[in-house]
Design goal:
With 525 residues, the protein is mainly β. It has eight helices and 34 strands. The strands form nine sheets. The chain has a six-stranded mixed sheet with strand order 12-11-16-15-14-13, with no helix packed on it. Strands 6, 7, 8, 9 and 10 form a five-stranded antiparallel sheet that branches. It has a five-stranded antiparallel sheet with strand order 17-18-20-21-22, with no helix packed on it. The protein is globular and about 60 Å long. It starts with a helix and ends with a strand. 51% of the residues are buried. Bound molecules: MU-OXO-diiron and calcium ion (3 copies). The site of one calcium ion has 3 residues, from loops. One calcium ion binds next to loops. InterPro entries: PhoX, TAT_signal, TAT_signal_bac_arc. This is DUF839 domain-containing protein.
C-alpha cells in the first residue's frame, strides 16, 4: 500500500484499523496524534528521519517532550535580567547570538508581544490608568539576556554587561523613504516598539523584530499609529545602540522577517502580514551584501523594492510609485505608499491570504515556506503551509504548492512559527485559540498547542510528528537553534490566558504559583 493510500485509510477508518494497517505494512511503531494513529519513522537514512519518539497530544500543564529531552527555564516574566531590568511579558521570537562562536554561551534576544488577558497579573484592577499604561509599556518590546550552559543546564548570566530592555518607551530612529515623510507626521524618530511578534536575524548579527498587532495599544495609549507596524533592527552586542525602524520594508502587522541573498548578492527579506485576508511580501535591496562591511550592511535595508504576492499570476507586484504607476492615483510619495502598504497592495491586486504568519527559507533548496494559520471567514480553521519556488530570490515570478495541511488527518492545526534545521526538516509550532473552540469546538482533539516535526523530503515528507505539547492555554513561539542544533530555544507565551480570577489561575506553569510567560532551552538533540 502506498504511503498516501495508507494515510487515507488511517484518516477515514479510525484508530483500531489504522493500528492494524500499520502492523500489516511493517511500520514498527504507532504514535497517536489528535485521535488519529500515525506511523513513526521507519529506519530510513539521512534527512527526513524522525529523531525522536513522537508524543501524543496532551492537556497537561507542563511542557511535555519526547523521552530523552529536557527543558530549562532560562527567564520568566518579571525575572531580574541584570542592569536593574526585568524580563518582559508574553515572549515570542528568540534569536541566539553566539559569544566567541559558542553553542553554550551567547546572547538571546527575546520579543515581548502583548499583555492581553495577562493584564490580570500585571496590576490590580484599581490601578490608575496612567500607571497601567506605564507597566504595559515596560513589559513590551524585547529583552537582551546573556545565557550560558553550565553543568549540563542553561541559565541566565547575572550582571551581564549586555543585559538590556528595549520597550514601548525606547527612542527609535526611522530609516528609509518614510523617514520624515508627512505620512508619519514628519518625524525622524519615534517612541518605542511593541506588539513584537516574530522576526529574524540579519546576516550581520543583529535582530529584526516585527511589530504585529499594534493597533489596539496604540489607540489606548494615544500613540500615532503610523509609528508602529514596522520591522525594527536592534544591535544586541552594543547596549548603547539606538534601534532602527526600516520603513522600506513596509508597514503592516508584521509577523516575521526571513533574510536570504539573491544570486547577485542583493538582500531579500520575506514577510507575512498576520491578519485575515492580508498579504505576503518580500523586500529586495538595491545594493549588494558585502560581508567585509559588517554592520554597515544595515544600510541595505533603507533602499530597495517592496513586493507583494499575487498567487493567481505567480507574480511579485512592486509597491513602488515608479514601477507601478497605478499607485499614483492614491499616493504622492513613496513614504506614503510604505506607510499604507496594505492599501497599496490591494490597489495592485495582491492575493488575500488566510493569516500569513511565519516564513522561512529552506536551507538547501531555498524554496520559501509560509504558514497560513487559519481564517474563519472562509471556514479555514486548520490552516496550511505553502511552499514557494523562485528561480532566484530576487525574481519577480514564482510558483507555489501546498506543502502540508492542518487538520485531524495530519495531527496539527493552525501552523504559526516555522523553523528549519540544517537538514531541511521543518519544525512547526501551532497557534490554536485557547477559547471555547479549544474546549468544545474544532480544536478539542488537538488538546494544548504543540510543536511538530515535518520532514520536507524522504518517506515521511509532509507528515507531522508531535515533538512538544505546551502548558495549558499557552502557545509555543519563537523557536531558534544554537549553531550546533543541540539546543532549541522556545518562548512559552500566554500560559493560563483564560484565567479570570488571578487567585485561581488556569495554569501555574512554570513555578507553581501564577502562569509566567518564559523562555526555555530544550536539550536532548
Ligand atoms: Fe503574533 Fe501572528 O502571531
Ligand atoms: Ca506568531
Ligand atoms: Ca521562524
Ligand atoms: Ca500567532
Amino acid at each position: 500500500m502506498s504511503d498516501l493510500t495508507r494515510r487515507q485509510f488511517m484518516t477515514y477508518l479510525g484508530v483500531g484499523t489504522a493500528a492494524l494497517i500499520g502492523t500489516a505494512t511493517g511500520v514498527t511503531r504507532i504514535a497517536k496524534a489528535a485521535g488519529v494513529e500515525m506511523p513513526t519513522a521507519r529506519t530510513s537514512k539521512g534527512s527526513g528521519r524522525v529523531p525522536f519518539r513522537p508524543i501524543a497530544p496532551s492537556d497537561q500543564d507542563d511542557l511535555v517532550l519526547p523521552k530523552g529531552f529536557e527543558y530549562d527555564v532560562i527567564a520568566a516574566w518579571g525575572d531580574d535580567i541584570g542592569n536593574g531590568e526585568k524580563f518582559g511579558y508574553n515572549c515570542d521570537l528568540t534569536v541566539y547570538f553566539p559569544i566567541e562562536k559558542s553553542s553554550e554561551h551567547g546572547l538571546l534576544w527575546v520579543n515581548h508581544e502583548y499583555t492581553g488577558n495577562g493584564k490580570i497579573f500585571l496590576y490590580p484592577p484599581d490601578t490608575p490608568e496612567k500607571e497601567k499604561h506605564r507597566i504595559e509599556q515596560y513589559n513590551l518590546g524585547g529583552s537582551i539576556i546573556e545565557i550560558k550552559k553550565e553543568n549540563g543546564q542553561w541559565r541566565l548570566v547575572k550582571n551581564s554587561r549586555y543585559a538590556r530592555r528595549v520597550t514601548a518607551n525606547t527612542m527609535i530612529d526611522l530609516t528609509g523613504p518614510a523617514r520624515g515623510d508627512a505620512a508619519v507626521g514628519g518625524v525622524v524618530e519615534v517612541e518605542g516598539t511593541f506588539a513584537n511578534c516574530s522576526g529574524g536575524r540579519t546576516l550581520w548579527d543583529t535582530v529584526l523584530s516585527c511589530e504585529e498587532n499594534f493597533q489596539e495599544d496604540a489607540k489606548r495609549w494615544g500613540r500615532n499609529e503610523t509609528h508602529y507596524g514596522w520591522v525594527v533592527e536592534v544591535d544586541v552586542f552594543d547596549p548603547k545602540s539606538k534601534p532602527k525602524k526600516h520603513t522600506a520594508l513596509g508597514r503592516f502587522s508584521h509577523e516575521n522577517a526571513a533574510m536570504t541573498l539573491s544570486k547577485d548578492g542583493r538582500l531579500v527579506v520575506y514577510m507575512g502580514d498576520d491578519a485575515k485576508d492580508e498579504h505576503f511580501y518580500k523586500f529586495v535591496s538595491e545594493g549588494r551584501f558585502d560581508p567585509a562591511k559588517g554592520k554597515e550592511n544595515s544600510r541595505l535595508l533603507e533602499r530597495g523594492t517592496l513586493y507583494v504576492a499575487n498567487l493567481e499570476k505567480g507574480k511579485w507586484l512592486p509597491l513602488d510609485l515608479e514601477k507601478s504607476p497605478a499607485l499614483k492615483s492614491k499616493f504622492r510619495t513613496q513614504g506614503e505608499v510604505l506607510v499604507n502598504a496594505r492599501e497599496a497592495a490591494k490597489l495592485l491586486g495582491a492575493t488575500p491570504l488566510d493569516r500569513p504568519e511565519d516564513v522561512e527559507v529552506h536551507p538547501i533548496d531555498k524554496s520559501v515556506y509560509l504558514a497560513l494559520t487559519n481564517n474563519d471567514r472562509h471556514g479555514n480553521y486548520y490552516g496550511q503551509i505553502l511552499r514557494f519556488v523562485e528561480e532566484d530570490p530576487a525574481s519577480e515570478h514564482f510558483t507555489f504548492e501546498v506543502f502540508a495541511v492542518g487538520g485531524p488527518q495530519s495531527g496539527f492545526a493552525c501552523p504559526d512559527n516555522l523553523l528549519f534545521d540544517s537538514k531541511g526538516n521543518l519544525w512547526v509550532f501551532c497557534d490554536m485559540s485557547s477559547d471555547k473552540l479549544n474546549k468544545e469546538g474544532v480544536y478539542k482533539p488537538f488538546k494544548n498547542n504543540g510543536g511538530f516535526f515535518i520532514p520536507t523530503n524522504g518517506p515521511h515528507k509532509g507528515e507531522a510528528f508531535q515533538f512538544a505539547s505546551g502548558p495549558v492555554q499557552c502557545e509555543m513561539t519563537g523557536p531558534w537553534w544554537t549553531p550546533d542544533e543541540k539546543t532549541l530555544f522556545v518562548a512559552v507565551q500566554h500560559p493560563g490566558e483564560e484565567t479570570t480570577d488571578p487567585a485561581n489561575p488556569t495554569s501555574r506553569w512554570p513555578r507553581g504559583d501564577i502562569p509566567r510567560p518564559a523562555v526555555v532551552a530544550i536539550r536532548g538533540f
